[in-house]
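Hey, weird one. I pasted the Putative UPF2 regulator of nonsense transcripts-like protein sequence into the form twice and got a warning about non-standard characters only the second time. First submission, copied straight from the form history:
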Amino acid sequence: MTTSDNDGEKSEKTVEEACESTEESEKAALAEYVSNLEIRLKQKAELRAQNLNCVRPPENHFSKLESGLKKNTTFVKKLKTFSASQIDTLLKDFSLLNLTKYISEVASAIAEAKLKMSDIAAAIKLCSALHGTYTEFAPNLFENWQKILTFKATDKITNSSKLRVDIRFYAELVAVGIFANKTGLPLLGNVLTVLINMDKDDHNNIPILMSFCKHCGEDYASLMPKKIRDTSEKYNIPVPRNVFLPAEKQSTVRTLLKDYFGSLTKHLLAERAQLQGLHAANQRTLHTRGELSQERKDLLEQHQATYDKLLAGAQSFAEVLGEELGEAGEPPTLTLTVIETQGTVTIGGNEEFNMQAGTDPWQDEDTRTFYTSLPDLKVFMPHYQLKETVKSKPETLTEEMLDEDLKEDELSDSEEPPVVNEVETEEVQPANVSNKVLFGVARTRLDLLPFYSRFAAILYPVLPDVCVDLCQMLKQDFKYHVRKKDQINIESKTVSALDSRYVTQIENAFYYVCPPEAPAQPKEEEPPMHQFIRKILHEDLQKSNEEKILRLMRKLNWDDPDISAIAIQHLAGGWRVRASARRALARLTAELAAWQENVAPAIVDNILEEIRVTMEDPHPRYNQRRIATVRYLGELYNYKLLDSRDVFTVLYSFITFGVTNDHTVVSPLDPPDNVFRIRLVCALLETCGAYFNSGSSKKRLDYFLTFFQHYYWFKNADPYWTEENKFPIYVNYIYQECLTTLRPKLNMYTSWQKCKDALEDLRQILYPDLGEEGFDNDLEDPNEDNSANDGHDGLDTIIETDDETDNPQLPDESSDDEPTTENTGNDDNE
């Protein structure tokens, strides 16, 4: 036997030994996996049987345990910060406590606890002990899991780490029998379905689903590592599986996960192609411009990071599912090579552009022929040596050079290929074609460039030096123009000279996107004293510092007209302060009026003027200002700064100023759709109407409420309001609440006609001699003095002849107590 035969036998034995060793290691790994899996399945099966068939202690057992609030509450707090290291302490405390009254808090604390993956086994052990002791534990725990794991596909996952642990925890609770399959599986299936359906485009939920597959895939989808599955199939060794879930349901879960994996691979391929395209575009830009912008660099880095993250997730997901990534797992091609051949340009590894088929540069067949079909000059050359022609002396060419200018003109005027061909044939013979002729083409004759290029291409086979020199001259001239800074680009100026309408459109678009910076308007500097008054009244004033601010206001120089006017202006601005400080401002004004006699009349005049001005302009932008001003007026009446006559004048102006009392005539001051005056009346009556409960003020209010109901039903009965466009219901609520608060036994009318009948009855009682027409006209301004009319055709001003004995209680406000100088009933200021 030769030496070579011995070496061959040794190598064969070595291969066989290596194969046997590989086979033994694979079987050993499979046996170890199966052994560990059998242990885990056995433990889960025993725990599941224990939880499904648990025997709970009798009722008298709990009476022996601790039921105190302090210890039970401490136990619940420990559950909220649960960790595996606390399990022994918690089980010991659990055995000593009676948690019957706290089982809902215990379930909530366990469900909301921020656990780690290493804490799940200990948490399952604790939940099994609770489930085996308390019947209500499992239902309460399931209700809490429903709140946590119920969300929609449109919801955004804010804490994916906790959701990953929660899903595994809940799946383990179902697997060990704390929740029955019929109860727990639908919620788990809904969570997985929503997570997959909401993430088929972005695939942000890979960590959550991968964690479920890794820890619960054996129980719910019969998943195993690909290496173990291949080894099991290779050696025909069965692998046990958990049978608590039927095989068809496991197949459904496995199909759902594989569908998600399929969409993930498609996304990975798309991201890979996008990354390759972006890289190729950057390489082309770098090749042509020499640098990349920072934006393009950042964009490439962003896409690269996204692709790396997606690839890592896909690889891990494929390993857990036991699937192959295939083409999606191949690395992207990020190199750029430029290969030029005849008719084809290849850029990058897989990016090929065929100039004849893919992106044809020719517009038609004639253009293709012009650039590709070139005549051969050798056919037209005489029978003498080319070298002698090229090296001939200048003296032998003098006759031909005499006609050079003529031929240059002929070439410049040539616009057809045949003429160009004839010129070349004649020019090759002297072989002294000047490159300056081709290089010095007129800049306005762009139409000649294709013909000059064809002329140079025809000459190149026999006179290559001519084309080489021409290219060199063009490159040098290009570099010169690039480096030259003060160029006069006639073409650019011509293009920029657009029609005036286009210039206007471009300027409008530009200034719309980038408006010119308007010069800042100089802000008038407010004097320090004015700023001080505004700050203490509008910002600092509140119930606690009212006395302090009163002392500051009294210290002002009221003899100075400027300071006095500013102070009165701010004191009259009830709409400038907070609603909670409105009563404090009125109380401050009343106390200040005792020291400055001219303050109260000036403030009241300003407020009445403000109300009148805003009524003349019924724009909705003044609505909040009107409400605040009217309420402030009522607060001033409560502190006896104006008479009840002024209040009723304002009330009547609300229902008469600009009111036509005729639906056919629309008033611009009080249009049909404007019902805000009803709110103004109610606001004023809610603020100070409680004081009109006796004496002449009570009678005046009763008469006014009749007129107010007439105005309300006049607005309500307007044809503007239809079934489709109903009268505002909130106005009806405000109206009824106001009237029932002031007069609980008031006879409220239900139609406009009844209101008109009530007004007629009131006229017969008060003014029997006044005609109906005169009474209607008087409604337009019931406070107008008509005593000068001989015919006595209108209502005179009501003159109070008796004392009023009003003594109401001021309506409470959350921010103020009752005023110290309230209107006590004897309306002395009237």
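That's the output from the first submission. The warning seems to come from a hidden character in my clipboard, not from the data itself. The mean pLDDT is 78.
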